[in-house]
Design brief:
single chain, 284 residues, alpha+beta, Fructose-1,6-Bisphosphatase, Chain A, domain 1, D-Maltodextrin-Binding Protein, domain 2, 2 domains, five-stranded mixed β-sheet, 9 helices, globular, binds L-MYO-inositol-1-phosphate, EC 3.1.3.25
Length: 284
């Protein structure tokens, strides 16, 4: 089913209100649970009651407003279909569980084979990042551009980590980035990291495997802020996850070479309708 601009307009207004209402729940949970026992889904995989409550809130509101839309969430799963909301209720759970105010709600809306809307809201700072395909990216309404950095010795990259990837592969990429001259950070929230690339606060973000709910909103933000990314949906990332790379154009190839994660090629761009014009990018 192809959605027209009016249908996406309706979801844009809803998406912004949905992110704000979810953030109220998330912040209340953050303030309530500080110092409480921490639940674990698995090694280094935290579970808080707020994750489930926020996702249920989001899922219920979508089911009421747009019952025909699909849903895929980190906590409750789902069958997305062609028109779907892809949601991480609390990205940065490890931070949330330890009372570190660096976490967010990440909401993406996928239709017509692409991410159409992306919203990332950090309830602790009240910074709302939003992008609509072809219409730019904002933070609290202010337009965003990726960083102008060209000198690798001045770059600050972020490299995400999870135990879904062999440690040796992570260390290899980390070493290559430091050897290329970059400073490398990890903040434990991939969605916030991608929003910071769009905001010019970081020059690039890479992770060797991310789930769709962690990255789809942020990848749209980066592209709409003038950045470049790797392929994700075309790799089957919606259901299975895939490597993620997003960066300002001048340093994207270096990040790709150091991590071995491919960039979108000109052929990828030309094959995707309505893509913003980008310089030709070599793949890794
Ligand atoms: C997080 C991701 C991040 C990854 C973390 C964790 P969560 O998601 O956003 O990319 O590096 O290990 O998976 O679990 O906080 O929602």
């Amino acid at each position: 089913m192809i959605l027209d601009d009016l249908a996406i307009d309706q979801r844009e207004a809803f998406c912004l209100d949905l992110a704000r209402s979810a953030a109220i729940l998330a912040l209340a949970g953050f303030e309530r649970q500080a110092g409480q026992p921490i639940g674990m889904k698995g090694p280094q995989d935290y579970l808080t009651e707020t994750d489930g409550a926020v996702e249920q809130h989001i899922r219920n509101r979508i089911a009421t407003a747009f019952p025909q839309d699909g849903f895929l969430g980190e906590e409750t799963g789902g069958t997305p279909g062609d028109v779907a909301w892809v949601v991480d209720p609390i990205d940065g759970t490890a931070n949330f569980a330890r009372a570190i105010p660096h976490f967010c709600i990440s909401i993406a809306f996928v239709a017509n084979g692409e991410v159409q809307l992306g919203a990332i809201l950090n309830p602790a700072t009240q910074e709302l990042y939003f992008a609509r395909k072809g219409r730019g990216a904002t933070r609290n309404g202010q337009s965003l551009r990726v960083s102008p950095t060209t000198d690798l010795n001045a770059t600050s990259f972020e490299l995400g980590w999870s135990n879904r990837v062999p440690l040796a592969r992570y260390i290899q990429a980390l070493t290559a980035l430091f050897e290329a001259g970059s400073n490398v950070r990890r903040s434990a929230s991939g969605a916030m990291a991608l929003a910071y690339v769009a905001d010019g606060r970081t020059d690039g973000y890479a992770e060797l495997h991310m789930n769709s709910w962690d990255c789809l909103a942020g990848l749209l933000l980066v592209r709409e802020a003038g950045g470049v990314t790797g392929p994700f949906l075309s790799l089957g990332g919606l259901l299975d996850g895939a490597p993620v790379l997003a960066a300002s154009p001048a340093v994207a190839a270096a990040l790709s070479a150091a991590t071995g994660i491919a960039l979108l090629t000109q052929a990828d761009i030309l094959a995707t309708p309505n893509q913003p014009t980008l310089t030709t990018l070599r793949t890794a």
